[in-house]
Amino acid sequence: MKQILLITDGCSNVGMNPVTAAAHAYAEGITVNVVGVLDQGDLGEAGATEIHEIAKAGGGLSRLVHTKELARTVQMMTRKTVMHTIQHAVHKELKQVLGNSSLESLPPEKRGEVVRVMDELGETSELRVALLIDASASMKPKLQAVEEAIKDLMLSLQSRQGESELSVFHFPGGKHGEGAALDMSWTRTMKDIPALFARLHMQGTTPTGPAIMEVIDFYRKDDYGRGHRDDTDGLRSDYVV
Q1: How far apart are CA 130 and CA 4, in angstroms?
Q2: Is a pLDDT exceeding 70 seen at residue 23?
Q3: Where does the VWFA domain start and stop, copy by copy (predicted)?
């Protein structure tokens, strides 16, 4: 299972529409979750709407939170999306077997078994989360909360039975500041996280759409490097987001 977790505090103002980019991600089996970070005010109607629409197009969740709630929200959204993905896959499989019948139509013992299997898959399926951090100038006061959220998310991933990996990007990044820059490739440990934020150069623009496309490309190259293997841990790949 593959996720992009976008943390931002404002509207995109450079390049491709981020809603379109999120739709591209979803089409390639990547869920896009979005956290809008509030701090001494709000994102405004346009920012809140964009955050909701990005997550909707990316098949994920969106939340507007204050910095003190960020770590808990990041963990919750990651785990909730995993379970949503598994439930979606299982329900589609059941529909093929049962026709128009639903999970609720199964006998209690069978229904309980299906729920047990979904819970087990939620803990054992392979999971990769690409964290995409808005490093525009307005995010600077919020970076300490973001760092703590990453640490807590890594601890949460390490507690899962299944293989879990985290990568970190920031935007704007790259040569011309119009996309995203990779700060940390796939890891299962926290040893490199403290050094990440010392290297960030905060800039004014917010190229959210191009940044999402950069992360999609990273997933493509990574999948190719892994030999096109199926990373769904038993779930049908066309149902996994």
Answers
A1: 5
A2: yes
A3: 1-86, 128-241
User: What percent of the chain lies above the pLDDT cut of 90?
Assistant: 23
Task: State how far the Cα of 85 lies from the Cα of 2, in Å rounded to an integer.
Answer: 10
Q: Which domain holds residue 158?
A: 2-239
Q: What is the pLDDT of residue 235?
A: 40
Question: What residues does 182 pair with on adjacent strands?
Answer: 169
Q: What sign results for the dihedral spanned by CA atoms 77, 171, 46, 18?
A: negative
Q: Is the pLDDT of residue 236 over 50?
A: no
What is the tally of structural domains in the chain?
1
> Residue 211 corresponds to which tokens in the numbers above?
């940044």
65 neighbors 36 (Cβ within 8 angstroms): yes
Spatial contact of 98 and 56, defined as CB atoms under 8 Å apart: no
- For residue 161, what is the domain's CATH number? 3.40.50.410
Q: What is the mean pLDDT of residues 104-128?
A: 77
What's the per-residue H, E or C state across the chain?
CEEEEEEECCCCCCCCCHHHHHHHHHHCCEEEEEEEEECCCCCHHHHHHHHHHHHHHCEEEEEEEEHHHHHHHHHHHHHHHHHHHHHHHHHHHHHHHHCCCCHHHCCHHHHHHHHHHHHHHHHHCCEEEEEEEECEHHHHHHHHHHHHHHHHHHHHHHCCCCCEEEEEEEEEECCCCCEEEEEEEEECCCCCHHHHCCCCCCECCCCHHHHHHHHHHHHHHHHHHCCCCCCCCCCCHHHCC
Give the model's pLDDT for residue 178.
74
6 DSSP β-pair partners: 34, 132
The candidate with the shortest Cα–Cα distance to 190, out of 151, 157, 163, is 151
